[in-house]
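Final report, Chapter 2: Outcomes

The project's central promise was a pipeline that accepts a single protein chain and returns its three-dimensional structure in a standardized token representation, suitable for archiving and comparison. That pipeline is now operational. To close this chapter, we reproduce one record exactly as it appears in the project archive, with the input sequence first and the structure output second.
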Amino acid sequence: MARIAALEEAPSEKEERRSEREVRSLLSSSSREDLLSSLPHGIEGLLTTKEASQILKIHPKVLERMAKRGEVPALKVGKFWRYRATALDAWINSRLQSGGQVCRIATSF
């Protein structure tokens, strides 16, 4: 009897496959912005290396090297680097305001 009750409660393989297909279709049909907006309030979505490098206008490998050296705020999830847009924005602003970056001064002779 317990086995019959367990079989009745467990979803069938057909239902599981259907739900997996629904999830895949939702993921493929919705854009990244839709997925990020569906996150719980207060949780910020993370950017991939490619997305962050496009924002910073640098090559993705350069950004990964900077993350590895700790030069840019990043989080390693498994073997992939992830970046918060707000942390990158704060990092850019701090670099601009620090004065530590050399700027070119136009000189005329």
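Archive annotation: Residues 3-11 have pLDDT under 50 and may be disordered.
This record, like all others produced under the grant, will remain available to the consortium after the project formally closes.
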